[in-house]
């Protein structure tokens, strides 16, 4: 079971999604282990008056990246034969 988990983690580490928010002014990249691997913010959003817009854009980009990666994870799990019978989850 552990080797399957390691195999899954390795397969997911190879995946990556990039999403854009606020009219491409925020670009976020996440890997298959849900680690944020890149974040780019346009200088226009770095002013004090744009703080709320920047915060919302980062939250939106993160939420979209999570959804996309969850879909990829589900497909990878399915390709690898699904989840084993885990007590309490089956």
Summarize the topology.
Layout: H1 2-13, E1 16-21, E2 26-31, E3 36-41, H2 51-79
Antiparallel strand pairs: 1-2, 2-3
Descriptive account of the structure:
This protein has 90 residues and is α+β, with helices and mostly antiparallel strands. It has a single domain (2-79), classed as Ybab, Chain: A (2-Layer Sandwich), CATH 3.30.1310. The protein is built from 2 helices and 3 strands. A 3-stranded antiparallel sheet has the order 1-2-3, with helices on one face. The relative contact order is 0.19. The mean pLDDT is 87.
Query: What is the radius of gyration computed over CA atoms, rounded to a whole number of angstroms?
Result: 17 Å
Contiguous runs where pLDDT drops below 50 for at least 5 residues: none
Distance between the termini: 15 Å
Helix coverage percent of residues?
40-55%
Q: Could you say how many structural domains there are in total?
A: 1
Instruction: Tell me the quaternary state.
Output: single chain
Largest sheet: 3 strands, antiparallel
Q: Which geometry do the CA atoms define? A: elongated
CATH architecture title = 2-Layer Sandwich
* CATH superfamily heading: Nucleoid-associated protein YbaB-like domain
Total helical elements: 2
């Amino acid at each position: 079971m552990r080797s399957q988990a390691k195999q899954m983690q390795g397969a997911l580490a190879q995946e990556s999604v990039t999403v854009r928010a606020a009219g491409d002014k925020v670009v976020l990249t996440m890997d298959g282990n849900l680690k944020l691997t890149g974040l780019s913010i346009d200088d226009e959003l770095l002013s004090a008056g744009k703080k709320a817009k920047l915060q919302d854009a980062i939250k939106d980009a993160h939420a979209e990246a999570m959804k996309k990666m969850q879909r990829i994870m589900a497909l990878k799990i399915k390709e690898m034969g699904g989840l084993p019978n885990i007590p309490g989850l089956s």
